[in-house]
């Protein structure tokens, strides 16, 4: 079931405005889940405008990696 923005008057639909927000922020919070256990973590990120991609730094082991391996839908 698709969801919609409840306050459409506050929705940001302009791509340039979205990119400006991403470029001016320093941190993002990602939400992960393993089984019925939620896990949210705030990370610094890099943004590649050409690829329209966020890059997060993390180690090769740890809780984030365990959660990502269990459920890659972030």
Shape: globular
- Structural domain tally: 1
- Helix content, binned percent: 10-25%
SS elements, strand count: 3
Annotation field: number of helices: 2
What is the average of the pLDDT values? 91
Question: How far is the N terminus from the C terminus?
Answer: 18 Å
Low-pLDDT residue spans: none
- Strand arrangement across the biggest beta sheet: 1-2-3
Radius of gyration: 15 Å
Structural class: alpha+beta
Largest sheet: 3 strands, antiparallel
Give, in order, the helices and strands: HEEEH
Determine the strand fraction and express it as a percent band: 25-35%
What labels would you give this structure?
globular, 24% helix
Quick description:
With 74 residues, the protein is of the alpha+beta class.
Helix and strand topology:
Layout: H1 15-24, E1 27-34, E2 37-48, E3 53-56, H2 63-70
Antiparallel strand pairs: 1-2, 2-3
Overall description:
With 74 residues, the chain is of the alpha+beta class. The protein has one domain (8-70). It is built from 2 helices and 3 strands. It has a 3-stranded antiparallel sheet with strand order 1-2-3. Strand 2 and strand 3 form a beta hairpin. The model has no long low-confidence stretch (mean pLDDT 91).
């Amino acid at each position: 079931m698709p969801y919609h923005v409840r306050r459409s008057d506050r929705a940001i639909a302009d791509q340039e405005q979205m990119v400006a927000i991403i470029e001016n922020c320093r941190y993002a919070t990602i939400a992960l889940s393993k089984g019925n256990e939620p896990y949210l973590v705030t990370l610094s990120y890099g943004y590649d405008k050409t690829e329209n991609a966020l890059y997060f730094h993390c180690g090769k082991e740890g809780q984030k990696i365990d959660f990502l391996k269990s459920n890659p839908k972030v």
